[in-house]
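Data card: per-record layout.
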Amino acid sequence: MSDVMLYVVSGALVYSLLLGVHYTFSFGWKFKLYALACFLVAAISLYLILSKTIR
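The structure for this 55-residue chain is written out next.
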């Protein structure tokens, strides 16, 4: 079960990074808050992976 959680969190990390970069460069200032939220999700995912919380 822990491997599944690792895959899910890794997928969330990649998806939120790509979505954050997309929001940052594709839209105007209206979507900057969405980009920051995506980068926050990526930071939390990275923290969970590196701190071995989900393993």
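Known properties of this structure: The chain is about 80% helix and 0% strand. The helical segments are 2-26, 32-50.

See the next section for split statistics.
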